[in-house]
Design goal:
Elements (H helix, E strand, L loop, with lengths): L1 E7 L4 H17 L2 H12 L2 E10 H12 L10 E2 L1 H8 L8 H13 L2 E7 L8
Antiparallel strand pairs: 1-2, 1-4, 3-4
Helix pairs in contact: 1-2, 4-5
């Protein structure tokens, strides 16, 4: 499994947030066809100029580092401004420079950060 970390531009924020709720509900209900379709739609909002793919292991390290300053940090599919600000205060630029750049740009432009697990046959990490 890979984790896509990507900017969702301001113009797509509302729809992406709605889809993230749909995805969570489909996951909880075990509706895999809906999960696949919703995941695909969410990924279509990812700005590939501001995107990174992480291995599951790297993503867990990323979350662990954030939770060192806030043990209750929630890793939702869409990181909104308050969560992005929280990530930026964790001093992760040396470990995850590309993700921090995406987060900074999202905050600057009014976008959000998509963090979405997906299946990928190629295991390549940032």
């Amino acid at each position: 499994m890979r984790i896509k970390i990507a900017l969702v531009e301001n113009k797509h924020v509302d729809e992406a947030q709605e889809l993230s709720v749909e995805l969570q509900e489909a996951m909880e209900a075990g509706e895999m066809r809906v999960v696949d379709k919703t995941t695909e739609r969410l990924l279509s909002f990812a700005d590939e100029m501001y995107a990174a793919d992480l291995s599951e292991e790297s993503w867990r390290i990323f979350l662990e580092k954030i939770r060192m300053s806030d043990e209750y940090f929630q890793a939702e599919y869409i990181l909104k401004a308050t969560q992005i600000e929280q990530v930026l205060t964790c001093n992760l630029i040396e470990i995850f420079p590309q993700i921090i750049a995406i987060a900074e740009y999202a905050l600057k432009t009014g976008g959000v950060v998509l963090q979405l697990p997906y299946e990928d046959e190629v295991e390549k990490d940032v």
